[in-house]
Amino acid sequence: MTNKLTETAPRIFYDCTKCPAFCCGIYERVSVTKRDLNRLARYFSVTVEVATRRYTKLWGKSERVLRRTPDPLLGEACRFLDRQTRGCSIYHGRPNVCREYPARPRCAYYDVLQFERTQQDDPDVLPLFQITFRKAE
Ligand code: SF4
Ligand code: SF4
Q: Are 116 and 11 in contact (CB under 8 A)?
């Protein structure tokens, strides 16, 4: 007898519950779409205008991103990251990009976390990342 669920479910090599939520901290831009804004508004029972103003800001001329606040571990992080549990405080209202990330069986940041904990022989060590993007000429 075969188990279809096991056969088709992709194997995942990271565990967000054992990670300080690097992805919610290192990316300065967590983009929100109109659909995300509608979802946020519904989640908080406010108008789309209020949700847009309160929870997001403009990045550049036209991109709308989630607001960020200081974070004791990563310096700065999404304002919706729960600083105690390191989980998303608006899980059912989070933007689509957060739902899809990392969109592959491995998470590079989780891999580095595990790598450094082994390398430093310290199960609690926290490697810190900063990532910026520029065009390669
Ligand atoms: S950085 Fe990777 S492992 Fe950590 S919370 Fe984000 S997706 Fe999960
Ligand atoms: S909305 Fe939640 S999952 Fe998305 S960046 Fe913020 S804390 Fe992380």
A: no
Ligand 2 atom closest to residue 82's alpha carbon, by position in its atom list: 7
Does residue 3 surpass a pLDDT of 70?
A: no
Ordered by start, the domain boundaries in the chain are 11-119
Q: Which ligand is nearest to the CA of 19?
A: 1
Picking from 51, 65, 128, the residue whose alpha carbon sits closest to that of residue 98 is: 65
- The 8-class DSSP code of residue 78 comes to E
- Please give the pLDDT value at position 5: 54
Closest residue by CA, ligand 1 atom 8: 16
Q: Using pLDDT thresholds of 50, 70 and 90, give the confidence band for residue 10.
A: confident
The DSSP symbol for 50 reads H
Q: What span, in angstroms and rounded, lies between the C-alpha atoms of 69 and 79?
A: 5
Measuring from each residue's beta carbon to the nearest atom of ligand 2, which residues come in under 6 Å? 24, 30, 66, 78, 80-81, 88, 90, 94-95, 98
State if residue 127 touches ligand 1 by the CB under 6 angstroms criterion: no
Q: Give the position, in ligand 1's atom list, of the atom nearest the Cα of 109.
A: 1
What pLDDT score does 8 carry? 72
Question: Is residue 7 very low, low, confident or very high in pLDDT (cuts 50, 70, 90)?
Answer: low
